[in-house]
Amino acid sequence: MKKKLYVAIGIAVALLVCVGVCLVIFGGSDEKPSNDSNEPTVSDEVIETETESSTETETSVETDPEESLETESEFESETEIESESEAESESEAESESEIESESEAESESEAESESEIESEFESEIEVGSGVESESESETESESESESEYGSESESESDSESEEESESEDGLPNEELQYTTDGSYIYFGQYPQKDVTDPEVLARLAMEVHALPTYDYELDGWITYGAYANGEAQNYMWYKDVVLDEKMYRGVYFTSYRVKDTTGNDPYTYFDMNTHTTLSMQEKYGYVTETVYWFEYEPIKWKVLTQKDGYALLLCANIIDGSAYQNDTALTGAPDGTQLNRYEYSTVRAWLNHDFYQTAFTPLQQAIIQLTDVKNDADNTSFGSGFSAPATQDYVFLLSNREVNNEDYGFKDNYGIDGGDHDRAKSRALTKYAKAIGGVAMSGTNGACGDWWLRSPHPSGTNAQTVQYTGGMFRQIDIHQYLGIVPALWIKL
């Protein structure tokens, strides 16, 4: 009986060993076996325990040594494979961590580089409060970092912009836009030379969609309000156009400019070749119902004198034209006020409004000085006691005394009509001045014209002028259309 019992126990042990081997060979998966069931998990410890128990009962059951070795070897191999797998996983995790760290470092470096670039150009562009990320994979922390850099750059840009834009007198010197050339200064802009480039003319023509009429100012056209028969008329218009950052002025008229604002006749010219009488505008090639274009150019000024950081400038050309006085009766002036008093003149109003606003930017206007313009008897031709109050002007006409001041470079031919010409006084007309009705004759400086002084004549209806030759002329009717040569003081 005992022998049979020992055989049964040996068989049971052998079966348990086989089951363990099968479990090790075929049951080795990534998932750990569940111990929820009541059946125990077979392990080497159980086998060893059962073997020892059999020995204590004086049983000597022998197991197959080759199967045991194979089982242990396979079990150890599985364990090594799992260990290597875990090691590889840890290595890959560390590698990914290092890649992410390097990526974050590169991103931070890029953010710092972008910030430096933005700081370098912050005076030229406006930096936003945040910078867009270059790829969707950038992290939120990088975006926040870039936003902080953007905010700092914007703050620094505003600060530097304010510092650069202000000089000691609060003016941005780099934007004053005047240049010097010997005894001349280029300051402000005004239409002067005519446009002849066919391509530019074609592009400008595309800016004209309609032409004005007597009753309507269409398509941005503005009337000159040119006088005829004693009142303002609508027969001459202009239109300013910006093309490729340059300013141009178009001129269009349906009648020729009259020579006297109280009449209706233009300045005329008798052509000996055709034996026909032409208006002066026709003589220069400007005819009615045609649009002509002129380019804004820097205005050239002669420096007459400098004192304590200020300069008195006189325009080097006849830049425009006007009557000294358009009206035949003054409005708002005290009774008995002479019609030729400079204070109420049409030309003074035009200089300090139309010309001042058109020719100069606000920054340029800031350095033009408000001048106490004297109109007393010492500034008239004869010292006859014809005095008028001083005026406060930014732009003005010279007086008879000023235009004969040798300290300004002029010849003193004060009070002389016609003769003793002075080249320094002679002024040529621009193309634009001719197109709108100015009259050019001959002179020492070429095709020059007459221009107004502010000094009135005792007659009450005349004022003084400089002739095209540079000589003086004391009695010209104030309603005549003559050239304008502005003067002004600026701070250098």
- The count of β-strands is 19
Q: What's the Cα radius of gyration? A: 50 Å
Q: Provide the number of structural domains.
A: 3
What characteristic shape results from the CA principal axes?
A: elongated
SSE arrangement, N to C: HHHHEEHEEEEEEEHEEEHHEEHEEEEE
Question: Structural class of the secondary elements?
Answer: alpha+beta
- Spatial gap, N to C terminus: 134 Å
Task: Indicate the percent of residues in helices.
Answer: 25-40%
* Strand portion: 15-25%
Arithmetic mean of pLDDT = 73
Low-confidence stretches: 28-173
DSSP helical segment count: 9
Main sheet overview: 8 strands, antiparallel
What's the oligomerization state? single chain
Fold blueprint:
Elements: H1 2-26, H2 44-56, H3 65-120, H4 140-165, E1 179-181, E2 184-194, H5 198-205, E3 222-223, E4 227-228, E5 231-232, E6 236-243, E7 246-253, E8 268-271, E9 276-279, H6 280-283, E10 292-307, E11 310-315, E12 320-323, H7 346-359, H8 362-365, E13 371-373, E14 391-393, H9 431-435, E15 451-456, E16 462-466, E17 472-477, E18 481-484, E19 487-491
Helix pairs in contact: 1-2, 1-3, 3-4
Give a summary of the structure in a few sentences:
The protein is of the alpha+beta class and 492 residues long.
